[in-house]
Specification:
This protein is mostly beta strands and about 180 residues long. Helices cover about 5% and strands about 40% of the residues. The protein starts with a helix and ends with a strand.
Length: about 180
């Protein structure tokens, strides 16, 4: 007897309907997010709510897709946006043991007094990566992250990106992808 996919969803993935859990061989790196699809989230939808102080009310033109030297980035300009969390569904499944790659460019960083910026990533409601950057910095720089997934996560799970900053600065999220660990 054949079980329909719709029935499997309705029946909460009973064992007869569960997807195989074997990792595919030779997994190629794939985008986990689309930099044109981020949506601002607040309140209960913001897994970073209450972190870093400040409100999450940003002018609509303070963030969005931006061409960054021929590569599509998601830019956050902190002139009118000191704290922002955005989210979207994951474009692909994450397998336990996969590497998740994060690549961010920040421009020269300034603030009225020394401070720190925080960049963070959460998947399915769990923070998985965080980078703290000292401010000021008289030059731009790249922030690279690689982490190993500790569990399987379904395609469509919520991916959240968070920026908290002091001063008038700009951050460009270039990549969040998943694939084989490097090295």
């Amino acid at each position: 007897m054949r079980t329909s996919r719709w029935f499997c969803v309705v029946a909460a993935l009973t064992p007869a309907c569960a997807e195989p859990t074997l990792e595919p061989a030779g997994r190629e790196t794939a985008a986990l997010v689309d930099n044109t699809e981020w949506i601002q989230v607040t309140g209960e939808a913001d897994v970073f709510d209450g972190q870093g102080g400040g409100d999450n009310s940003c002018a609509p033109d303070a963030f969005g897709p931006e061409d960054f030297g021929g590569e599509l980035s998601f830019e956050v300009s902190t002139d009118d946006c000191q704290r922002l969390t955005v989210a979207q569904p994951a474009l692909t499944r994450i397998w336990e043991g996969d590497a998740i790659f994060v690549r961010v460019w920040h421009e020269q960083l300034s603030a009225p007094e020394p401070a720190e910026a925080v960049l963070a990533l959460a998947i399915a409601g769990t923070e998985v990566w965080r980078e703290t950057i000292p401010i000021p910095q008289d030059h731009g720089g790249i922030v690279l992250g690689e982490l190993i997934a500790e569990r399987d996560t379904a395609e469509g799970a919520v991916v959240s990106w968070h920026v908290h900053n002091h001063g008038k600065n700009a951050y460009h999220l270039l990549e969040v992808s998943v694939g084989e660990p490097e090295g």
